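Reviewers of the previous submission asked for a worked example of the structure-prediction workflow described in the proposal, so we include one complete record here. The input consisted solely of the amino acid sequence. No template or homolog information was supplied to the procedure at any stage.
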Amino acid sequence: TGLSSARPLDLSTCLVVLPTAGAARRLRAELLVCSSDTGVLPPLMTTPMGLLSLAAEADETGTTTVASRPDSLRAWADVIVNSSAEKYPLLLGGFPDPAAVAFRVGESLAAVCAVLAEAGLTPSSPELLRASPLDEDRWREMEALYRRQRKILQAVGLREAQAVHIATAQAGTPPPKIWRIIVAGVTDLSPL
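From that input alone, the workflow returned the following structure tokens.
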């Protein structure tokens, strides 16, 4: 049964944060079914990390300067190619030729950064050394590689995505033109 109103349901100033893109597609489809008589101006729908991307600051031209995943991986690969296993034995010592596996190692390091970002941390966070003192040398190597990766991105005018996400979450600023944020913790929606 549809919603009754003379005008379309306007949800355009709302943002719905859902756990998956699939849940967003299902919610969007259900909204269309429920408002088939009058129409709907749908809310913006995203995942938690997508919310941080939406709220990330833009530069003066209005375009984001956040590094894309491919940009980030290229920077990680550049760091690995120009690093020696002797200098970073705990992270690169297991590879006969780190340069040959630079993208795969870069993907692994990027994945570690993504997990850390979910907790509001980066490889430079002092909390890591306190939480795992037995891995202090490994974290110091990771921090050094991370700093180099960030410098490569900064040299081309990009900001590391995880650091931007953390800063955005700490600032608590919603995306422009959004008045209400709704967190919907459902993974699958039953028909309404």
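The first helix runs from residue 21 to 34. We consider this example representative of the routine output the project will generate in years two and three.
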